[in-house]
Hints:
5 helices
Amino acid sequence: MQDKVTFEYAIIRVVPKVEREEFFNIGVILFSKRKKFLGMKYFINPEKLDVFSSELDLAEIERYLNGWELICTGEPDGGVIGKMEVSDRFRWLAASKSTIIQCSKTHPGICTNPKETLEGLFESFVL
């Protein structure tokens, strides 16, 4: 039997017009301290993005999210933040922002496999 561990997650959102506070979910970021796991998964539906705002550039948003992935994995191209401890990287990514890409408040949970849990949360909240 696998050990159950705590985790935290946040939903990644696109907020096309920050002043209107309208958003839609595009991904999930999940952190488990005991498993030393930090991962994210995202998908942006181009048609949905266009309905919310035809002014946003999908490729630019994906470039930012690719940077987030580099931070998650601790890659050197993740910059100064990518070199931080895994818990600090999660806190930085999940922190409140008033930008087009934002995260929900963090939520706790218990799981045995953070990667599988990330997949399940992604299917529930994004797809």
